[in-house]
Specification:
This protein starts with 6 loop residues before the first strand and ends with a helix. Helices cover 20% and strands 35% of the residues. By secondary structure, the protein is of the alpha+beta class. Strands 5-8-9-3-2-1-10 form a 7-stranded antiparallel sheet. The protein has a 3-stranded antiparallel sheet with strand order 4-6-7.
Length: 128
């Protein structure tokens, strides 16, 4: 389950380019499957400025805690409040209703460092 049209990080976040310089961020199917039953999510605050690679959110499951890293530098403009009360949405629909936040990207060149779906699939194949 690696949808085309998204970009990925080596730490298993996905990024969807939105209108302008906005980007929606979530975690890949591989990450949510490894975590299993997600029970808690701590999201970044709206207005927070992030640097690419910075830990900015936390996901906890019955199995482990997992830091979420900013795939791009920018400012958080929206968070998915539904995850606060229903973190299971990440397990149920990680590429849809289980998104984490939207940021206004400030460094367009950072998009080039993200992995297309084919490269992310190759990364997963080497870790199995």
């Amino acid at each position: 389950m690696i949808p085309d049209g998204l970009h990925y990080t080596k730490t298993h976040e996905w990024v969807r380019r939105e209108e302008g310089t906005r980007a929606t961020v979530g975690i890949a199917h591989h990450a949510q499957a490894e975590l299993k039953d997600i029970v808690f999510v701590e999201l970044p605050t709206v207005g927070k400025t992030l640097t690419a690679g910075q830990a900015c959110a936390v996901v906890e499951s019955v199995k482990a805690a997992f830091d979420i890293y900013a795939p791009l530098s920018g400012t958080v403009v929206t968070v998915n409040q539904a995850l606060v009360t229903t973190p299971q949405l990440i397990n149920q629909d990680c590429y849809g209703q289980g998104w984490f936040f939207v940021l206004e990207a400030s460094q367009p060149a950072e998009w080039e460092k993200l992995l297309p779906s084919s490269a992310y699939a190759a990364l997963l194949a080497t870790t199995r």
